[in-house]
Amino acid sequence: MIHSKRFILYISFYLHFVICCSNTHHNDIFLISCGETNPVKSDDGRVFEPDLANTHLTISPISHTIVSNSQKGVPKILSSARVFTTSSIYTFTTKKLGRHWLRLHFYPVKNNRFDLSSAVFSVEANGITLIHEFAFFRGNKSQHLFKEYVIEVTGSSLGKLVLGLLPWENSIAFINGIEIISVPDKVLSSKVIHIPLGVAHELPVHVGFETVYRVNMGGGSRLSPKNDSLWRNWASDKPFLINPAAARNVSVNPDSIRFHDGVSTDIAPNWVYATAEEMADANVNDQRFNISWRFEVEQGFDYFIRLHFCDIVGSRLHDLVFNVYINNQSAIESLDISQRAKGLSAAYFVDFFTNVSMGSDNIFVQVGPNHLTGYLPTALLNGLEIMKMSNPSDSLDGKLAVNLDPTDIKKSKSIKMMVVVFSCLGGVFVIVLLLLISFIFFMCFRHKKLPKEDGSVGWSPLPTYVGNSGNKFSSNTFGSTTVSHSLGQMISFSEVRDATRNFDKSLLLGSGGFGKVYKGVLENGLVVAIKRGNPRSQQGLVEFKTEIEMLSKLRHKHLVSLIGYCEELNEMILVYEYMASGPLRQHLYGSTLPPLTWKQRVEILVGAAKGLHYLHTGVSETIIHRDVKTTNILLDENLDAKVADFGLSKFGPSLNQTHVSTAVKGSFGYLDPEYFRRQQLTEKSDVYSFGVVMLEVLCARPAINPTLPREQVNIAEWAMIWQKKGELYKIMDPNLMGCVNLESLRKYGETAEKCLSENGNQRPSMGDVLWNLEYALQFQGASCGDADSMRGISDIPDRIPDVESVDIDTISDLESNGTTMDR
Ligand SMILES: *[C@@H]1O[C@H](CO)[C@@H](O)[C@H](O)[C@H]1NC(C)=O
Ligand SMILES: *[C@@H]1O[C@H](CO)[C@@H](O)[C@H](O)[C@H]1NC(C)=O
Ligand SMILES: *[C@@H]1O[C@H](CO)[C@@H](O)[C@H](O)[C@H]1NC(C)=O
Ligand SMILES: *[C@@H]1O[C@H](CO)[C@@H](O)[C@H](O)[C@H]1NC(C)=O
Ligand SMILES: *[C@@H]1O[C@H](CO)[C@@H](O)[C@H](O)[C@H]1NC(C)=O
Ligand SMILES: *[C@@H]1O[C@H](CO)[C@@H](O)[C@H](O)[C@H]1NC(C)=O
């Protein structure tokens, strides 16, 4: 049975490969008019098909109604709509994998059956929330809501784009028009410049984009889809100019624009490059100022910014050289357009990436003259695009949902995964395949009582999928916080002393460079971990205060919270929440605790990854943990993981000799080799350490175990040898044998490998790691829920490595024990 399952998997991959590859040369174009019965010609000359006429498109369930009403002045495509009273989906079978533009038209058509302007609904596509509880009557938006997104159709969704329309409780949802168009491969490349200038960035793969601005500088009126080979809209820049008097429009004949390597009209039509805003009067007197545009954006999201340039004012090469700023920060210094574009009137573009942190809701773009002499004292910009990127909770609409209940996510995601896999197969081969897989799964699940929702996924999965997404929406707890203590309060020394029975040795949890950590009970009954600074510690009062200030700001369910502090009588005491199950390491080896199941292990890592992701991106300044390891991942009584000992690095003492050597000693085996070489700390150093943690969790052995044969001492080196052979399972914890799903392990191994890349730029972000771990978890959830199964890997390795329970104290010094807030 196991073998036949594996066989089926191979077949499915093979078929998948064949199907995808035979289709890569066709681009998708769906132009759909919802609720129409006849094709509709739009103003720009395109013909939109009725939604029921397209054979590559299904709508489900059928509980929907058509409304239409040809009003004067309303474009034909907006004058009909399909109205849904329950959550429903449109499923498009695309010919091509990869990114697709998804353009949606909503218009509350007046009719006598429904009041569409009072409808409240959400929209999602391939698992990404596009619109969250929108209603026309709320915003004072124009009556036509037009949205453009970029959604990836992946192999794992088997070439489907699934658009969900989810009415809010007792409300309705509707849609008027849908456009889906393949994004040509080169249009969204992966190289982006990070603003503020820093570590080079790769565009994350599994994000959705929403076009928030697409602007043609100096173009006057809107450039309609007619003038764009990919039917994009380009707006005028006038409303965004901060000081219109500083700019003047310039234009040339669009036919004179030239496109060189990599740039084509797919990037932007020649109409965009043929017009620009230039500095007004710059040529007359030697004025120095910037042209500035301001774009309002939603805070708390990452943004992709593309600037289009074309030298349409210079008469010689290298005449036009100027500076570009984004958010008051230098983005390009001395941009020589004609050199970069390889000629005058040649099109050129640059991509940037920036995050708009909480507290600011603007993106500023400025161009201004270079301070160097000998150049035209002017600057110009031809076009601009700003795209919002989906956040780690896969949303493009709504705040950073750092407090989303993870069980909710898990539930809806695992259902989604099942459904994506099950529902998205098509074609004759695949139907046969489906039946086979169904048989196998039936056999596999026969003994296991499935929860109701899983069971009902069955063979008519679509309504369930929608139902669950519906739950996802209604239970979305964006912005709500579950932290119950008031953080960072002052606690008197007498209370601390009472809490620890005058620092009773029996309550000692651990000790480190900073001091000792005790378990204690506050007057209000709260059990806490109390870290008492060593008076002779090198960590002075200033650092202590900075730490309090910073830690008080950090609130996240996967970070150990600071509850209070005490600085009476020259004491430096920090009070943290107590983590009942102690450090993760203790659950892996070197103790008598029962082994964790694979699912528990991955869930713990998911929690820790969320905490680190928050440190890296969730607060206004990136915080690098710098000491990620299994003793700094603490577990509460439910085995939920929290990251401890964070932030110290940023405010810790400068890297004087003692400190460096302490760090190296304490965290040997976790240290990013690049950081070691270049002494340059980035958040990717944490990613490296996290990769080591992942291996430690998989293999249940210390990062460094000097008692092992030489090639096995360092887990990162040893495990990568097996990972490269595709035989990672051979060195995994024997307790996991037989209950790790192959696909889950494959994803896990790949992720760890990427985290351990030599070059920091090649390592994924914590957000990507998180995504991959959740993916690994879903696979596990879908086929092997608990440890007692015989599914998963069937063959027990012929050679089980000697994993001795090594006395942790011999491996690393002070930092190995206890609840460790130590440093
Ligand atoms: C919407 O805009 C109109 C004018 O355009 C204004 O009279 C009305 O008060 C606005 N409504 C809301 C809810 O802001
Ligand atoms: C360019 O600016 C001039 C005035 O300086 C104005 O008359 C003209 O309409 C503008 N053209 C566009 C396309 O905005
Ligand atoms: C759009 O293209 C047509 C020619 O196809 C041209 O006549 C028209 O001026 C263009 N519109 C704009 C706004 O540039
Ligand atoms: C950039 O500077 C302008 C004015 O100098 C200011 O209003 C704006 O808030 C600044 N923007 C950012 C993102 O710092
Ligand atoms: C242009 O803007 C940048 C960033 O806001 C600023 O640093 C620079 O001084 C400005 N240049 C001029 C000439 O005003
Ligand atoms: C987010 O923006 C802040 C400043 O606005 C910056 O310090 C931080 O590095 C940015 N984070 C990422 C992940 O780019």
UniProtKB/TrEMBL annotation:
<feature type="transmembrane region" description="Helical">
    <location>
        <begin position="417"/>
        <end position="442"/>
    </location>
</feature>
<feature type="signal peptide">
    <location>
        <begin position="1"/>
        <end position="20"/>
    </location>
</feature>
<dbReference type="GO" id="GO:0016020">
    <property type="term" value="C:membrane"/>
</dbReference>
<keyword id="KW-0067">ATP-binding</keyword>
<dbReference type="InterPro" id="IPR000719">
    <property type="entry name" value="Prot_kinase_dom"/>
</dbReference>
<feature type="domain" description="Protein kinase">
    <location>
        <begin position="503"/>
        <end position="776"/>
    </location>
</feature>
<keyword id="KW-0723">Serine/threonine-protein kinase</keyword>
<keyword id="KW-0472">Membrane</keyword>
<dbReference type="GO" id="GO:0005524">
    <property type="term" value="F:ATP binding"/>
</dbReference>
<keyword id="KW-0418">Kinase</keyword>
<dbReference type="InterPro" id="IPR011009">
    <property type="entry name" value="Kinase-like_dom_sf"/>
</dbReference>
<dbReference type="InterPro" id="IPR024788">
    <property type="entry name" value="Malectin-like_Carb-bd_dom"/>
</dbReference>
<dbReference type="InterPro" id="IPR001245">
    <property type="entry name" value="Ser-Thr/Tyr_kinase_cat_dom"/>
</dbReference>
<dbReference type="Pfam" id="PF12819">
    <property type="entry name" value="Malectin_like"/>
</dbReference>
<keyword id="KW-0808">Transferase</keyword>
<keyword id="KW-0325">Glycoprotein</keyword>
<keyword id="KW-0732">Signal</keyword>
<keyword id="KW-0812">Transmembrane</keyword>
<feature type="binding site">
    <location>
        <position position="531"/>
    </location>
    <ligand>
        <name>ATP</name>
    </ligand>
</feature>
<dbReference type="InterPro" id="IPR017441">
    <property type="entry name" value="Protein_kinase_ATP_BS"/>
</dbReference>
<keyword id="KW-0547">Nucleotide-binding</keyword>
<protein>
    <recommendedName>
        <fullName>Protein kinase domain-containing protein</fullName>
    </recommendedName>
</protein>
<dbReference type="InterPro" id="IPR008271">
    <property type="entry name" value="Ser/Thr_kinase_AS"/>
</dbReference>
<dbReference type="GO" id="GO:0004674">
    <property type="term" value="F:protein serine/threonine kinase activity"/>
</dbReference>
<keyword id="KW-1133">Transmembrane helix</keyword>
<dbReference type="Pfam" id="PF07714">
    <property type="entry name" value="PK_Tyr_Ser-Thr"/>
</dbReference>
